[in-house]
């Protein structure tokens, strides 16, 4: 089994949340709504109703590499063979550096 993990990592917890909200807020909607939205303007309008705190139910948001390790260990314990890590914010350089140095080695 393969699991795609939506996460937002940033060294600053407020930034991790804010950037997840900026980039990923429209992806929390159910399919019934997503199939009705046609234009970028409609997606933007729907996204205006999403509060940043709502993303915690849909995205793993944390500045703590150890927290991410714990979440990912639970996924492995559930039987997932492969984890695809998707950092939903745009701070990819620090994500790659921190997860490459601290998170991935702790999972192997």
Question: What's the topology here?
Answer:
Layout (H helix, E strand, L loop, with lengths): L1 E7 L4 H12 L6 H4 L5 H8 L12 E2 L3 H13 L4 E6 L4 H16 L1
Helix pairs in contact: 4-5
Query: Topology as H/E string?
Result: EHHHEHEH
Low-confidence stretches: none
Strand order of the largest sheet: 2-1-3
Cα-based radius of gyration, to the nearest Å? 15 Å
The pLDDT mean sits at 95
The number of strands is 3
**Shape descriptor:** globular
Main sheet specs: 3 strands, parallel
Label the structural class.
Answer: alpha/beta
Please give the share of residues in helix: 40-55%
Provide a count of the helices.
5
Tally of domains:
1
| Distance, first to last CA | 17 Å
The amount of beta strand, in percent, is 5-15%
Give your account of this protein's structure.
With 108 residues, the chain is of the alpha/beta class. It has one domain. Helices cover 49% and strands 14% of the residues. The chain contains 5 helices and 3 strands, in the order βαααβαβα. A 3-stranded parallel sheet has the order 2-1-3. α4 crosses α5. It is globular.
Summarize the structure.
By secondary structure, this protein is of the alpha/beta class.
List keywords for this structure.
3-stranded parallel beta sheet; 5 helices; single chain; globular; alpha/beta; 108 residues
């Amino acid at each position: 089994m393969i699991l795609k993990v939506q996460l937002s990592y940033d060294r600053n917890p407020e930034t991790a949340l804010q950037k997840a909200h900026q980039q990923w807020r429209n992806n929390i909607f159910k399919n019934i709504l997503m199939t009705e939205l046609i234009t970028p303007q409609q997606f933007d309008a729907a996204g205006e109703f999403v509060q940043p705190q709502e993303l915690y139910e849909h995205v793993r948001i944390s500045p703590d590499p150890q927290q991410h390790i714990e979440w990912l260990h639970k996924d492995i314990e559930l039987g997932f063979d492969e984890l695809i890590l998707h950092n939903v914010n745009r701070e990819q350089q620090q994500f790659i550096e921190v997860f490459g140095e601290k998170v991935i080695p702790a999972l192997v």
